[in-house]
């Protein structure tokens, strides 16, 4: 197979925000795997931190050991016709899910912990975007921003059913309630979508500590402010969320293709 030679770089940043003493978010940028992830943990002080860290570590570990498809036994219930990177992401998410679920069951202090996950795996000129929960992925292309992921959240269900206006969702008292998480149940469904990349594309992964406070236009403007300095753009996004209240942990990862 011939791949377009797209170059991928990534950077990330996390901040506890201005209200919370602990940071239950986690992130990872793994250039050798072309894998990028943000996770937002929940379930008490210790639990949230552990769950989000296990999501990052668990998915990275599976991706490290699944570079060669011939060495992997795929679960029987997985559609064999799915593209290989899609299968890898689904099983990576389910592997992390098992790990978090098992640890949560065996330790009273960690009982009930779970985490969101949004991640990108790039292969050739294609990005595969996986998510569970309400952490989001956005695409910035041709100076426009577009949300790629659909939140697995109660308020998003309300919006789909016409019970709530989209602009009311982030301020709704139940906006933090998610309907899918890694580690909450023995099985989890991982959504994966395929995105053909173009040079100049940027992808933003973020926890709701960012997306609840910044408008899409604010995100776009902070990201495109310094196209060649991802770290500076990550810092600007975090700083703006803190300026606008910082009521939750704030985590971002930025991926750029050139
Ligand atoms: Ca959060």
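Q: What amino acid sequence fits the structure above?
A:
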């Amino acid at each position: 197979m011939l791949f377009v030679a797209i170059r991928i770089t990534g950077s990330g940043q996390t901040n506890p925000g201005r209200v919370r003493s602990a940071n239950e978010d986690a992130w990872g940028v793994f250039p050798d795997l072309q894998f990028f992830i943000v996770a937002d943990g929940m379930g008490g002080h210790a639990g949230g931190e552990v769950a989000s860290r296990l999501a990052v570590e668990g998915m990275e570990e599976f991706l490290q050991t699944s570079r060669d498809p011939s060495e992997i036994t795929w679960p029987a219930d997985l559609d064999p016709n799915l593209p290989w990177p899609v299968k890898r992401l689904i099983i990576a998410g389910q592997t992390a899910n098992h790990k978090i679920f098992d640890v949560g069951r065996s330790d009273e202090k960690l009982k009930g912990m779970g985490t969101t996950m949004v991640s990108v795996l790039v292969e050739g000129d294609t990005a595969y975007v996986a998510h569970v929960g309400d952490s989001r992925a956005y695409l910035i292309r041709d100076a426009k921003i577009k949300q790629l992921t659909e939140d697995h959240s109660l308020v998003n269900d309300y919006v789909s059913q016409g019970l709530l206006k989209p602009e009311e969702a982030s301020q709704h008292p139940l906006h933090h309630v998610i309907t899918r998480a890694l580690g909450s149940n023995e099985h989890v469904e991982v959504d994966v979508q395929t995105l053909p990349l173009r040079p100049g594309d940027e992808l933003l992964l973020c926890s709701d500590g960012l997306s609840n406070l910044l408008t899409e236009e604010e995100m776009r403007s902070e990201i495109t402010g310094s196209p060649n300095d991802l770290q500076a753009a990550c810092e600007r996004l975090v700083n703006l969320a803190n300026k606008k209240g910082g009521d939750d942990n704030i985590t971002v990862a930025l991926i750029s293709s050139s």
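Q: And what stands out in the fold?
A: Helices lie at 44-65, 84-106, 154-160, 208-211, 216-224, 230-243.
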